[in-house]
Amino acid sequence: MQTPAVVVGTDGTEPGTAAVRWAATEAAYRRLPLRVVHVLDWDWSVSRYDYQGEYFDSARRLAERTVREAARRAKDLVPSLTVEFQVAVGRPVTSLARLSRSATLLAVGSRGEGGSAGWWLGSVSRRVVAHARCPVVVVRGRHAGPRDPVAVGVDDSGDAEPVLQVAFTTAHRHGVGVVAVRSYRPARLPAGDAGSPECDSVERDLLTARLVPWRARFPDVPVDTLVSTDSVAATLAEVSHGTRLVVLGNHAHGLFSAAFHGSDATRVLRRAHCPVLVVQEPRTRKDHHESTYR
Questions:
Q1: Domain 150-291, CATH number (from 3.50.50.60, 3.90.1720.10, 3.40.50.1000, 3.40.50.620)
Q2: Phi first, then psi: what are they for 212, rounded to 5°?
Q3: Which residue from 7, 38, 79, 274 puts its CA 20 to 30 A from 204's CA?
């Protein structure tokens, strides 16, 4: 069984390199080893046409150079960090999802919308988030300032507790504050009251009550609250201009990958201006079987 580690996937491009830098710094904060992975995208069903194995050998050598260089960059950035590296052979989504089973955190890069072709295209990053078995960070956007807080989306579900756990623990670890965001829909409220100061006050009180045990547990973490009638995705995307990380849950059910395409998590991944950490919802065997690597 592998030692728990922060795992980062990289393909040698700038987005992949940015993911390695972020993951190396985070692994150091967590006092965990960093495992750098390059996935050699190889379809064994057609490999029979590579009669002498020459193409595979060449691709493998290139993959090894890529992952070694990424590991060297991570070590140069954090000399005290324990850095491991490996080449996984297979499909990127399947391979990274499998590696996530023994990871504490999985980081991937994102080209964002309109990016050039490649396996770190946004759709693949989103599929990795959908299938991973640990929290996933999609590294994107601006470099964080030393005092930039952690933003977290908070709703009324029981699944908000693991999200708050991650947000407050991360903020405590980095010595920064938390910005807790609550979005409420006017349809819940009496006609004419949507967005009024009174409604905002009610929603802020609900959010404040939700945060009481976390403030008690992390008294050193400053907390700001924000309520909005805009969507949680739009609000978090706007807040992300001044945060180091956005933390949110993934509340898709059943056919996980299909539901995920319309989720708030996907919208935030497309629009955020800083890295986004998605905390996975615990899945049943049935959920995992239905959604596996579609």
A1: 3.40.50.620
A2: -55, -50
A3: 274
